Amino acid sequence: MDLDTQLTVELASVVSAARRRATRDGDRQVDTAHLLHGLLESDPAVRDAFDGGPQIARLLGYLVQRSIGYGLQWHGTVEDSGAVPLVTEGGVPGWSPAAAAALDGALDRAHARYATRAGCLDLLAALVDDPESRAVEVLRRASVDTGRLAARLDRCGPGPS
What we know:
It comes from Streptomyces natalensis ATCC 27448. The chain is mainly alpha-helical.
């Protein structure tokens, strides 16, 4: 089944933006930081899950600096958080193992509530679930309490996006 048919329109737009950002930055794979960047830029419900404007500004500041400073240590490397075994065959072409696992986690979260499509908050929750991902590294550097964010996402539910 095509991935885009399993995502809300909003999340499909985020995934497309992450793919474009990875290509533009010269990265071999879409990683969880690309996905986080797309979520923050695209979805007001995702921004509302955080502790206000200053926290969002810090997060976007780190993510924007990715190709000119912060994040350069990632350039040309595969994101493998260790949360899932590194897949050498049958992986998702163009996606880091952690990003592919996050998309699977978003779909699992949607299916658990009997939804046919995963939304942006589903993906944000899945990103936060992997403590070793690049997305969580960015969140921590921006002083986001990921445990509190995860609890907030569990309480507020998936929303329509």
